[in-house]
Design goal:
The chain is of the alpha+beta class.
């Protein structure tokens, strides 16, 4: 796959939210209290665990945009379900028409159509 565009992935448990401390505070991580000075960055993972991100590491974190409204995906899923139901109905109608055509052809060929 030379020349193919590479896709990037991220594991959900590695996602963090980052906020800058507005005041001096303390965070608790792995049973240890860690002092945080005003202006330092605090990262929080999906499990609620926090740690301080050194200023020199801040540029290693890339912001990930998320859809805040899942209704877009829900409406897409609903649309696909509705299309599946329509496609199934159309397919069933096609099979029924094919079966009916086959029956008529058999009757015609056997001569029972004229009786």
């Amino acid at each position: 796959m030379m020349g193919a565009a590479k896709k990037l992935y991220v594991k959900k448990d590695h996602l963090v939210s980052i906020e800058q401390a507005k005041n001096n505070t303390v965070i608790h991580t792995e049973g240890v209290s860690v002092p945080v000075r005003r202006g330092e960055y605090i990262a929080t993972n999906p499990y609620g665990e926090q740690y301080v991100v050194p200023e020199s590491y801040r540029n290693k974190y890339v912001e990930v945009n998320q859809f805040k409204d899942a209704s877009f995906y829900e409406s897409m899923a609903k649309g696909y379900q509705e299309m599946a139901a329509i496609n199934l109905e159309e397919a069933n109608a096609g099979v029924a028409a094919d079966n009916q055509a086959e029956e008529i052809t058999e009757k015609f060929v056997s001569g029972s159509m004229n009786e």
